[in-house]
Amino acid sequence: MTFRNRLRLFAVSGLALFTVSASLPPAAASGAPEARHPKGGGLSATIRYTEYGIPHIVAKDYANLGFGTGWAQAADQVCTLADGFVTVRGERSKFFGPDAAPDFSLSSAAKNLSSDLYFRGVRDSGTVEKLLKVPAPAGPGRDAKESMRGFAAGYNAWLRQNRHRITDPACRGASWVRPVTALDVAVRGFALAVLGGQGRGIDGITAARPPTAAPPAAGVTPKEAAAAARRLLATQNADMGSNAVAFRGSTTANGRGLLLGNPHYPWDGGRRFWQSQQTIPGELNVAGGSLLGSTTISIGHNADVAWSHTVATGVTLNLHQLTLDPADPTVYLVDGKPQRMTQRKVTVPVKDAAPVTRTQWWTRYGPVVTSLGAALPLPWTASTAYALNDPNAVNLRSADTSLGFSRARSTAGIERALHRSQGLPWVNTIAADRSGNSFFSQSQVLPRITDELAARCSTPLGRATYPSAGLAVLDGSKASCALGRDRDAVQPGIFGPGRMPTLKNTPYVENSNDSAWLTNADRPLTGYERVFGTTATQRSVRTRGAIEDVAAMAERGRLRVADLERQQFADRAPTGDLVAADVAKWCAALPGGTAVGSNGTAVDVSAACPVLRRWDRSVDSDSRGALLFDRFWRKAAAVPAAELWKVPFDAADPVRTPRGLNTAAPGVSKALADTVAELRAAGIALDAPLGDHQFVVRNGKRIPVGGGTESLGVWNKIEPVWNPAAGGYAEVSAGSSYIQAVGWDSSRCPVARTLLTYSQSSNPNSPHHSDQTRLFSGERWVTSRFCEKDIARSPQLKVVRVHERR
């Protein structure tokens, strides 16, 4: 029996098809009377809800699938979605005031006003409308555009029937919760695409003004700029990271592939994942996590292939240094010929105040920008200005890439989708398939900065920032310094697929947000341009620990999905393995058991020594000593590397170096003294179980959280918020999010375990506000219900038919 026929049989079987109001999960409204008997034509979908409020959406085509997705996302996340739509409409100042800060999910704008000025400018210029009209593959395909249209209609249909029954206090009764258009959905996708480019420079774009008689703002030296660029790009996605590993069939128990994806994303706001299954009978059947507001599955699996993403090291923007006309600072010279900047005048409505009008300045290279963060000023003087080039500002193809993944039947299909649409702005792709293939590619949209071009065209500033940070600053006065085009690229000024660092069918491929170099430690990737990332440079402790773990797993072999589950929650702290024993031994030998803190006060640290010695080197909730070491290492890691380690980094031994803690470094002693004093002042025992002081509070109840921060190198990364007055780490800002462990057996149903750490809904009145968070706390998984027979057997099955009202 075909899948299509099985689905028809399911629809008319003894499983009742409930009405909208009767079968929506409690996360939605209690039910609008007019929804009980929907009438008329329009878009529609069937949604089957299983445990933890996971929707399985079935529709006849992409517009109807988008409709069901928009409806179901609104039911769980209407407030977060509505807040994001206010952002991309440029209306934050109108509703929330100009000086308040956005949640940074859709840009790095520091205040609502600068966010609005930018997004209003995008709207006024018709930027996204023009991109929607570009024929595929350079522009979005018909299926992607239809899914956007359907998403807007589904969101609006849910809102029309449930607006007055919204239970989430974040937006209950709010005037800014309004219907949206397909353009709103597309602009949200655009915002995500430019996060690392124009989205990073919004404050500098909207603040740019031609110089006046007043002295210009001070710049920085090339050396200072290089250091600032390194810091900027190292933290460009401080709240986003990830681990992922794919194992080839030669390492597994049955010869089929395995994939473990562990993305690290914000736990609140507009970059949360949301879990679902999307099905068009005979056309598409995929399950996974979607970034909120996205119409497609971002990370997931189908019956034959699974994939995940990690934030890549490629630098998604570059600068062009402009030589200005001495008589007019709004005119720049290219090969001696004057080019006048284009003015983009933008007006933003402001709450309880007059509208604000500002002018942005645009060039052939992109907008004039006067800073990339406070530490990297780019002054606009009488002779010089800087323009920001962001190739993702003409990339609206990410949904096409995701749809290509969803329809793929192998890792080769994943690669074809990457080559065809070239739509991923800032991530790597790791995949495995039923046939036993493993795959990695850093296929992302990057400015086509070759090392040759950078050597030939870098300004003095660029000669410092490009080798150090991958940020190119090119001479904009020379047409010969244009970025050019690769023959296999879908748009000018980007690299084509033939240039992408790619590794196939090694025993494992793994990435933890370092460059592609050590994707497999036995097969280092080299030969790519500096803009993609570095080679032969020090790796993070998280990368080092991950390689140690997955290489050992591959060598051991006979791997199963259960081995992936154990890796996710092993909670090993590689930094602890590196230094904890040395710290404990040194601590025990301190004269008088004291160390001097940063304030000059001697602190009795003797009680910390046995705690560190007995610590199990893990960050499980019941680990004693983990909190003490975590707080100590956050301080000790600030010691310069040259002082901190006895054995420096060695490119010939990158997984094992640097190592050997130099306990004689003054900062180490201060770190331990300050930590002991800090915990005692907070009333926290030095040997307290981690979960007693690392937790989240949901509906008034504490939920312990295991895992550890970046500096500890933990696979199960958690970035908690330190609040000793509230008991320690009393919230999580970012970390493990939509996790999946996927393999295959001889059946057509994948063997998949999933976990959405922060649960489906941010509405505290939803039963799906913390149910999976409690699973995460207990290191338990959700068994994926992918096949029809498994969905039908769910003890919590609820089925709903949702309609568009005409």
From TrEMBL:
Keyword Transcription regulation: no
Keywords carried by this UniProt record: Hydrolase, Signal, Zymogen
Keyword Ligase (UniProt): no
Signal peptide bounds: 1-22
InterPro entries assigned to the protein according to its UniProt record, in alphabetical order: Ntn_hydrolases_N (IPR029055), Penicillin_amidase_A-knob (IPR043147), Penicillin_amidase_dom1 (IPR023343), Penicillin_amidase_N_B-knob (IPR043146), S45 (IPR002692)
Similarity comment: Belongs to the peptidase S45 family.
This protein's name: Acylase
